[in-house]
Write a structure and sequence with these properties.
The complex is a heterodimer of chains A (about 210) and B (about 575).
Chain A lengths: L23 H33 L14 H25 L3 H29 L18 H31 L9 H26 L2
Chain B lengths: L16 H7 L3 H29 L12 H35 L8 H23 L9 H31 L12 H33 L5 H5 L3 H4 L8 H15 L7 H22 L1 H11 L5 H33 L6 H20 L4 H11 L17 H29 L5 H27 L16 H30 L38 H10 L3 H10 L1
Classes of the chains: A mainly alpha (about 210), B mainly alpha (about 575).
């Protein structure tokens, strides 16, 4: 039998572990999210401003023959809003240590992301927004940044969705590897935060570009 | 576990130097890399700026540049390398090295990310050089390399922002037990605020560069003026005060140590730094003024968008002066009540603070035009501002920027002297330090005087050669060129001193020590920074320690006073 009175589970010469640093990933993700929001805010501000300048000259903002249909943007909006509910399901599942449901929810989120990208590509093909300004067709010089702004914002958001999906997949694998569980969900929280911000940015783009046109 | 992001790793010692610097997550190695690269790029950027300044002395003909486009390229490259490649990199290096030590952390948050940030910045700056050399840049004639310019400048910004995320996360989430934010050392607080402001300011510039890239790549309707002005969103007052934030933090910290009297009203200094950051962010609001203009156009409520722009500018410029005065006042109080010993650290800190303050005062000249315009608008008459006071959009802006950048460079040199032993285990040379600080100080002043003087003669902000040049600007432009040459001399001396120190013998004597945690560990610190994880009970943990040892009651009173 082990002599309990002499058993020392922690040798004295071992340096105590440094206290765990909570919320590093969440903090850094929040900071990255703020930076991303500011980038889109700057671009959208320029878009709105330039659109107003062109409209003030009596011209139309969109070039002749280009129409922004509402079906695809609305479907993309619904897809993204659904993904928020799915992400909340993933977080709720991991908090209950329900791994199968966590993986299903994370997988669905990624699929929703792919669906969003696919719909965006379809929409851009449908719109065929020309990259150049056609002065002969009545474009004014004020419209010269129209296409670069449009593609910067839409393309930038697609990149943001891809980044959010990669983040989700990495955190999903970390969860699969046992790094995150009901007691420590920081990584998934961080990935979810970035996903929510991605959806929030899309809602602003949806209203600013697709609805108010 | 979150601890993974906080575990520093260093490459095994049998690896080559290249393998070691590529593989390290030790913030000290990464910080040194930023500082050395930053000092080198700063010197190179200022050398290019000198060429542009010499070319501009006589505006009637070209002597160095082949044509106007090439002059714009030279001017733009000098400005970009000085700011993005030099000053910001120096400050990122100092922050990466010092912040984890000051907040009592064993490592910087996301050490590998911090290393990746450096290499992204470094490679991007190299590509930036390539783009300028191959006729890219704002005035460039080769479209692909103009696109490369936008891409590489964007890459450099991403590297800087990534590094800022690591710094800000360390300040916010990796402080030692007991160290609340209000107990953080002033310079760590300043670097944290600086990082946060950078993370909301730089993305706006990044957005502009994305836009420029797509435009140049597919359409190319951007004028060189627009491309060259892209960096204005961070280089004009009040946005340029972003660089003043760490400069003021360093000044307060260094003066507190070398005068023997820590800054009183610690929290007031912190509040001042926070207020300064809000005013510096005011510059970014100007970018959103377009939304106000839209509001005006769409609602027809008579909202005065231009008045809104100008009002924000005036508020931000005046608003920035107050916190600067408070911080400099408290620094002066320490100098008065302490036993100041003049050395390069003190000279750099005080010179840096003074130049920033001077820049903020000079910037107020730019408010005359909008204020007069506002009252003229109210009275429904045409504004009547004398020509010499119509300064916005002239080289006056470059004069104010030169003062603030000069202040940040001086503070960085002062900081390098102050923490040299902690960083390299050696001291920088006092004689060379005094020389470099004096040269940068005088050079910045002369550059500012030259630019502001030429601005009063309506010299445009962007360089241009004119067949009928403005009268009386040659003298001012010559003063500017002399100033840039002097500042370059100072930076070159500093860079040489850094190299000399890095290759000299180690010095084990401690000439001074501060009141914050970095002074409680070896110089340079070991891989995990502290032998025992520290915990603190005030903003001056080492003063606490000294007080406990002496136990005379007097030091406790002093601590309460400075901690108020």
């Amino acid at each position: 039998m082990t002599d309990v009175s002499t058993f020392d589970p922690i040798p004295l010469d071992v340096r105590p572990a440094e206290p765990a640093r909570p919320r590093l990933l969440v903090t850094a993700t929040a900071l990255a999210s703020v930076a991303t929001i500011m980038m889109f805010a700057g671009l959208l501000g320029a878009y709105i401003s330039q659109r107003a300048d062109v409209i003030a000259t009596g011209e139309t903002w969109l070039p002749g023959g280009v129409v922004i249909p509402l079906t695809q943007p609305n479907m993309m909006m619904i897809t993204m809003v659904f993904s928020v509910a799915i992400m909340t399901w993933a977080l709720s599942s991991i908090r209950n240590d329900d791994r199968p449901n966590t993986y299903i929810a994370l997988g669905l989120c990624v699929i929703f992301g792919v669906a969003y990208i696919s719909q965006t590509a379809f929409l851009l093909n449908l719109m065929e927004m020309p990259l150049s300004v056609d002065f002969a067709a009545g474009d004014t010089i004020d419209a010269w940044q129209r296409a670069p702004l449009f593609y910067s914002i839409i393309g930038g958001h697609v990149i943001m969705v891809i980044a959010a999906m990669i983040y989700l997949v990495v955190m999903g694998f970390r969860t699969l590897g046992g790094q995150y569980n009901a007691k420590d969900v920081e990584g998934l929280y961080a990935a979810a935060l970035f996903w929510y911000v991605t959806v929030g940015v899309y809602l602003v783009i949806w209203y600013t570009i697709y609805i108010t046109k | 576990m979150a601890q993974n992001e906080m575990t520093p790793t260093d490459a095994p010692s049998d690896q080559s130097v290249l393998e070691r610097i590529l593989g390290t997550s030790d913030h000290k190695t990464i910080g040194r890399m930023w500082m050395l690269a930053g000092a080198a790029v700063l010197a190179a950027g200022m050398a290019v700026s000198l060429v542009a300044a010499i070319e501009q002395i006589s505006l009637a003909s070209f002597s160095i540049a082949a044509d106007g486009d090439e002059l714009v390229q030279i001017w733009s490259s000098g400005r970009t390398f000085t700011l993005i490649g030099g000053v910001v990199a120096l400050l990122v290096g100092l922050a990466t090295y010092l912040v984890p030590l000051q907040v009592g952390s064993s490592a910087i948050a996301f050490g590998r990310g911090a290393n990746a940030a450096f290499w992204i910045w470094f490679i991007s700056v190299d590509l930036l050089v390539v783009s300028y050399l191959l006729n890219g840049g704002p005035g460039g004639g080769r479209r692909d390399f103009v696109a490369l310019w936008a891409l590489s400048l964007g890459g450099a910004l991403i590297g800087i922002m990534w590094a800022l995320i690591c710094v800000a996360t360390t300040v916010l989430a990796a402080r030692a037990p007991g160290m609340t934010l209000e107990r953080a050392p002033i310079s760590a607080w300043a670097f944290g605020v600086w990082a946060l402001l950078g993370l909301v300011s730089l993305p706006i510039l990044l957005g502009q560069l994305v836009l420029s890239y797509i435009d140049v790549r597919y359409e190319y309707l951007s004028s060189y003026t627009r491309l060259a002005s892209a960096i204005d969103s961070i280089s004009l007052a009040p946005a340029i005060y972003w660089l003043a934030i760490p400069a003021m933090g360093i000044a307060a910290e260094v003066v507190g140590v070398h005068s023997g009297q820590p800054i009183r009203f610690h929290k007031s200094v912190m509040a001042g730094i926070g207020a300064l950051s809000i005013m510096a962010f005011g510059g970014d609001f100007l970018g959103f003024a377009g939304i106000a203009r839209t509001f005006d156009a769409e609602t027809e409520l008579g909202f005065k968008a231009i008045a809104f722009d100008n009002g924000l500018l005036v508020v931000a410029l005046f608003g920035a002066l107050l916190p600067l005065l408070v911080i400099m006042g408290l620094i002066s109080d320490s100098l008065r009540s302490g036993r100041a010993s003049m050395n390069p650290s003190m000279l750099g800190a005080l010179g840096g603070g003074a130049l920033v303050l001077l820049g903020a005062i000079a910037a107020l000249l730019g408010t005359i035009e909008p204020i007069v315009g506002f009252f003229a608008d109210l009275a429904n008459r045409t504004p009547d501002v004398p020509d010499f006071l119509q300064l916005n959009g002239t080289s006056f802006n470059a004069g104010v920027t030169a003062l603030v950048i000069g202040g940040a460079v001086l503070a960085s040199i002062g900081a390098a002297h102050h923490w040299a032993h902690k960083i390299w285990g050696r001291y920088l040379t006092d004689g060379l330090g005094n020389l470099s600080i004096t040269a940068v100080l005088l050079g910045s002043l002369a550059t500012a005087i030259g630019n502001i003087g030429a601005g009063t003669r309506s010299q445009p902000a962007l360089p241009q050669i004119d067949s009928s040049p403005l009268s009386g600007v040659e003298l001012f432009n010559a003063i500017t060129a002399l100033g840039v040459a002097l500042a370059l001399l100072g930076v070159a001396i500093f860079a040489l001193d850094l190299l000399k120190t890095a290759t000299s013998k180690r010095d084990d004597t401690e000439r001074w020590s501060g009141h914050t945690l970095e002074w409680s560990t070896d110089s340079p610190p070991p891989l995990a920074n502290f032998a025992v994880a520290p915990s603190v009970g005030s903003a001056f943990p080492l003063l606490d320690l000294a007080g406990d040892e002496s136990d005379d009651g007097e030091s406790a009173d002093a601590r309460e006073e400075v901690d108020a």
